[in-house]
UniProtKB/TrEMBL annotation, chains A, B:
InterPro entries: Ala_racemase_N, D-amino_acid_metab_enzyme, D-ser_dehydrat-like_dom, D-ser_dehydrat-like_sf, PLP-binding_barrel. It comes from the Bacteria. Keywords: Lyase. It comes from Methylopila henanensis. CDD domains: PLPDE_III_LS_D-TA_like. The keyword Lyase applies. Residues 250-342 form the D-serine dehydratase-like domain. This is D-TA family PLP-dependent enzyme. Belongs to the DSD1 family.
Length: 359, 359
């Protein structure tokens, strides 16, 4: 069964197509902005999810204080698109990156993260190039074992080093708290804040991350801002994390059933080069709205293999189906444009300007 | 420890960078062409691995009979780049695809695959648009449960349908034999060939697929051509399949160590948006040449998380390392260009022209 919109998308753009409903996008943006406002936190959305200046501007227009980028290339694309007040939550290393950072700092407000003396020491030329100081936050790990110093003492030592480096300004702390371990994060933060105070340092920014942490907004005493990313589109991971429902999922992969070679199996034209192999900790590689009992059990590059054993009504060859991806951020990064709809109407295309800008 | 080439690549292109050694590429192309020649099989390399007309031409210049594409967009890009004799090993459905196929057929020799009557019947307008007949092969599944009819009887029935459809020509059979079950494939093929003969049909093409099947070249009586893809670059999967060694791996992801927040762990700047989450059935997400005992145990979008417990010599922040990816085909599809080297010398860039052309 193909919806009229599915048929129109296949006819106009072909499949697979990544389609976003702007009505849902706007509702998501407004809802999370409201949550941040209510919690007294600045909202600094992470653009890695959409990689689109157009959508970043929509977030800023709704009240976001600035944006977060993971890579320098994303930040440059956002500055090109007119965005300002950009936090790059990444250790930038090497003369090429630091040179680019300096050039970016000349034309935009930029804050960067660091979790080691090597990073901090290397950042110094950026300020010289820009002719103005560079804000640096200390990235702290409070349990997820991502980037970030592991102890409050290390955080304080790195903050001191930043403050002592000409051209750099200690701006605060960057955290990605484990969603289920906020008390530990509070302990880390309190100890670090006390240590900083003893050194005469005060974190202007205490930034927390993650759409899954939206349910914990306001729980961390001392936090000043939050960096949600996925909330603009949502996906199966956010549903599993309990911060979104199916209605909040703005992005769907439209795919065509291209094979039904066996009675209990089928194939769609979205494989690992569209849905990606990122499992997101979930079973199957996406949820097919028309056939929720179908399991996308495996992927090859351009094929998604459907196990239809549990399906009462099975799809036919030629059907266009809608798939809620497991992890939308990596799916959006596979395509050069998103198809924009409102309800059942195609309203345009959104270029994924920063697609693939991992450098 | 960073090699001089690693330092130069980081300085010139930044990391992560996907770097291919053209000396190794040329050796791989020559070796596999020799294997096909020795087995009396035409070589029809699959371009999904490199998505580059430039590299496809190199394969043709070395003796390949034509090329294989998985998607229409790839085939269009290859025809734009001057390639001809293109097999699209995919069920193409829908008026948009069939219209494009007709336009492509007007300017290039094209063969397409089908595994259902719906696909076959839908292809008819392509020949009318092109003003010449379209060659169609029947895709057969002999055990991997990918696309393809499951029985010789179905193959014969579909061949008859193709032959009976105005504008379409039955061209043969397309197979991807399970690498460890060639006798079953032989049985399928023999039965199908007998059935076709009884109908007065003869498969001009019997095409087998897969770089892992290079070790089985010549094993299938009746095969006329092979479609290897990954062999041009190779990767950890091909090593695991026993058809390549580390010396045959032409593509490396150059990445920078950006964090060493714990004594037994580290982070490189290549995450799932570079290495992809495709595990390829292997442990870890790539092999670090400088630290083969490091395990890339997990990925976030722009971070590769290293477990360094088994490493005697651990990498330092700022080191540039080389990673052999698990599955190179999906990695190449993440970037817009490859950095080309010969040994320790950068010789240019190769645009990944068909990157992301999944439609």
């Amino acid at each position: 069964m193909t919806t009229p919109l599915g048929a129109e998308i296949a006819r106009t753009f072909g499949t697979p197509a990544v389609v976003v409903d702007l009505d849902v996008v706007e509702a998501n943006v407004a809802r999370v902005q409201g949550l941040c406002d209510a919690a007294g936190l600045a909202n600094r959305p992470h653009v890695k999810t959409h990689k689109s200046p157009e959508l970043a501007k929509l977030q800023v227009a709704a009240g976001a204080k600035g944006i977060t980028c993971q890579k320098l290339g994303e930040a440059e694309a956002m500055a090109d698109g007119g965005l300002d007040d950009i936090l790059i939550s990444y250790n930038l290393l090497g003369e090429r990156n630091v040179g680019r950072l300096g050039a970016l700092l000349k034309r935009a407000r930029v804050t960067v993260a660091a979790d080691s003396p090597v990073t901090v020491d290397g950042l110094r030329p950026a300020a010289a190039i820009a002719g103005r100081p560079l804000d640096v936050v200390v990235e702290c790990d409070t349990g997820l074992k991502r980037a970030g110093v592991e102890t409050p003492a290390e955080a304080v030592a790195l903050a001191k080093r930043i403050a002592a480096t000409p051209g750099l300004t200690f701006a605060g702390l960057l955290l990605y708290p484990p969603p289920d371990r906020w008390p530990e994060t509070q302990g880390f933060l309190d100890t670090a804040a006390a240590g900083l105070a003893a050194e005469g340092l005060k974190p202007r920014i205490v930034s927390t991350g993650g759409s899954p942490n939206l349910k914990n907004l306001g729980a961390l005493n001392g936090a000043t801002e939050h960096r949600p990313g996925t909330y603009i589109f949502n996906d199966r991971m956010q549903m599993a994390a309990g911060v979104a429902t199916l209605r909040d999922c703005a992005a769907h992969v439209y795919a065509t059933v291209v094979s039904r070679a066996g009675p209990e199996r089928g194939i769609v034209d979205a494989g690992s080069k569209t849905l990606t192999s990122d499992p997101g900790g979930l079973d199957g590689h996406g949820l097919i709205l028309e056939h929720p009992d179908a399991r996308i059990g495996a992927l090859s590059e351009e094929h998604g293999f459907l196990d239809l054993r549990a399906c009462a009504a099975k799809p036919a060859v030629g059907d266009v189906v809608r798939i809620v991806p497991n992890h939308v951020c990596v799916v959006v990064n596979m395509v050069d444009r998103l198809v924009a709809v409102r309800g059942a109407t195609i309203v345009g295309e959104i270029p994924v300007v920063a697609r693939g800008l991992s450098v």
